[in-house]
Design a protein that fits this description.
It is a single chain. The chain has 502 residues and is α/β, with parallel strands linked by helices. The protein folds into 3 domains: 164 residues, Immunoglobulins (Immunoglobulin-like, Sandwich); 119 residues, Periplasmic binding protein-like II (D-Maltodextrin-Binding Protein, domain 2), CATH 3.40.190.10; 137 residues, Periplasmic binding protein-like II (D-Maltodextrin-Binding Protein, domain 2). Strand 5 and strand 6 form a beta hairpin. The protein has 11 helices and 20 strands. Helix 1 packs antiparallel against helix 3 and helix 4 packs antiparallel against helix 11. It starts with a helix and ends in a 12-residue tail after the last strand. Strands 10, 11, 12, 13, 14, 15, 16, 17, 18, 19 and 20 form an 11-stranded mixed beta sheet that branches. Strands 4-7-2-1-9 form a 5-stranded mixed beta sheet, with no helix packed on it. It is elongated, with a radius of gyration of 43 Å. It is 25% helix and 28% strand. Keywords: Membrane, Signal, Transmembrane, Transmembrane helix. This is PstS family phosphate ABC transporter substrate-binding protein. Pfam families: PBP_like_2 (PF12849).
């Protein structure tokens, strides 16, 4: 199976974008309590004139009996705490410790003592949230090599992108060299505690994703600008379609869809009835330039014509909407067309004369009615066109499916027959023997007025001709979608093709 490249590119883009979204907002969580160590610097190594060193040299601490601080053990740490997610964080969202504990975040400094701390840069955060009674504080656990200095931070409510900073002075308790990195503990509901990165540059992952999607869209645009080559089974040329007016809307739709893909194909239409179409095809002689569509088989005549079963379709008995008879039986239909019922009150309807709206002799729809319901036995009426019918007369004839619908809708007491999908709301479609036309009743052949539709050529035509390719399109290809659109069943969609036998 050939899969279009642009479809593959679209699928890749959709998968990548969806995966990024899921990772960003579903797996990671939409609440993010972010932290970043912006500075962790030893005091030593600066010149004695540095303002910070000079200030710290003069400090002393009560814990050391008032002795001056040993600058070689000191370091200064600046930590940023922020809401880096997409949802606000409330105090109740913190998950550390019991509910009544004010502490929501803990920073641990292995091997270092927290001498002092200060809150700085309150970006949108209320000062009271980090005041003396908020739960902020410093402490320590363990002794010797297990000594850990701790800063407890309260459950601070943070709107999106709000932040604050903690500046702390630490003293080395044991060990030499680089001190251990601080660790952070805490969490929020529906999210997590994450280490954030500096916003001074664009994130590499975001830049990579953006570049990938831009390249993908550019590739799709290039492909879209390329003219689509016609499918391998397309045929060009001209084809005249003749025959059944009942099937005309369906076949026109299929031909229009074919021409959209196979742009070298041209169709002309001359639908004047099944009989006329078969006559025109026979008189045209062996030619791939004409195709006839017929309601039912061509019969015993036309020995040079070759027919292909295309679809199983149905015809409906329709009445004037004021009759109020939603169902008719097969015997009642026979009595109507054999002239035994002349008033609707004979069938339980209103006191209204019956007007039979017939198709002209040779119509495939009329042949289907006579073969399927009337057993070939009906009253022979003199030909009277409905357009010329005066006020009286039990029967008249029209040339097309559309003519049946229009005349039945406009004539009180009228009854006619037409292709089911063409029967609109202006007429009443009656059920036959309590059965309505549907895909299921067609497939089971329980609906009485079911007919096989044929595409017919004059002789065998070349496989690469437009006539042969269009027949194949209707039987095996995308043309079957148009058949289904009009409520019919493509013959090769059936469980067994036997349902398309006449």
């Amino acid at each position: 199976m050939d899969i279009p490249v642009e479809l593959v590119l679209s699928a890749i883009g959709l998968v990548v974008a969806s995966a990024a979204f899921v990772r960003e907002f579903v797996l990671v969580g939409r609440r993010r309590l972010g932290y970043r160590v912006q500075m962790d610097t030893p005091v030593t190594g600066e010149t004695d004139t540095a303002s910070l060193v000079g200030a710290l040299r003069n400090l002393s601490t009560p814990e050391l009996g008032g002795a001056a601080l040993d600058l070689s053990a000191l370091s200064v740490v600046l930590v940023r705490i922020d809401n880096s997610g997409t949802l606000a964080i409330d105090a109740a969202d913190y998950t550390m410790g019991p509910t009544n504990s004010p502490v929501g975040l803990r920073i641990s400094f292995p091997g270092r003592e927290v001498i002092g701390l200060a809150v700085t840069e309150l970006q949108g955060v209320l000062p009271d949230n980090l005041g003396p009674d908020s739960g902020i504080g410093k402490r320590a656990t363990g002794e010797g090599e297990r000594y850990v200095g701790i800063i407890d931070l309260p459950k601070v409510a943070l709107e999106r992108r709000q932040h604050y900073k903690i500046l702390a002075v630490l003293r080395r308790v044991h060990g030499t060299g680089e001190p251990a990195q601080p660790t952070f503990a805490g969490g929020v509901k529906g999210g997590k505690l994450v280490e954030t990165q500096s916003r001074s540059g664009s994130p590499k992952k975001l830049m990579a994703l953006s570049g990938f999607l831009v390249a993908l869209i550019a590739g799709q645009a290039v492909l879209a600008l390329q003219p689509d080559p016609p499918p391998r089974d397309c045929a060009g040329g001209s084809l005249t379609l003749v025959g059944s007016t009942a099937m005309e809307p369906m076949i026109r739709t299929a031909a229009r869809n074919y021409a959209k893909t196979c742009t070298a194909a041209e169709f002309t239409f001359d639908f004047s009835g099944t009989s006329d179409g078969l006559v025109d095809l026979a008189e045209a002689g062996p030619t791939p330039a004409m195709l006839a569509i017929s309601d039912g088989s061509k019969g015993q005549g036309y020995t040079t014509l070759v027919e292909y079963p295309v679809a199983l379709s149905s015809f409906a008995i329709v009445t004037h909407p004021d009759l109020g008879l939603p169902n008719l039986t097969t015997p009642q239909i026979r009595d109507l067309y054999r002239g035994r019922v002349v008033n609707w009150n004979q069938l339980g309807g209103p006191d209204q004369p019956v007007v039979l709206v017939d198709r002209e002799a040779g119509s495939g729809t009329r042949s289907a009615l006579e073969a399927r319901l009337l057993e070939g036995d009906r009253k022979v009426f003199p030909f009277i066109p409905c357009a010329g019918r005066a006020s009286g007369g039990p029967q008249c004839e029209v040339k097309s499916t559309a003519g049946v619908g229009a005349y039945v809708a406009a004539t009180p007491g009228a009854v006619g027959y037409m292709e089911t999908s063409a029967a609109g709301g202006e007429v009443t479609v009656v059920s036959l023997d309590g059965i309505s036309a549907s895909v299921d009743t067609l497939r089971s052949r329980t609906y009485p007025l079911t007919v096989v539709e044929y595409a017919t050529t004059n002789g065998e035509v070349a496989g690469d001709s437009l006539a042969a390719q269009f027949v194949d399109y209707l039987m095996h290809g995308a043309g079957r979608a148009a058949i289904r659109e009009f409520g019919n069943i493509p013959c090769l969609d059936a469980v067994a093709q036997a349902i398309c036998t006449p």
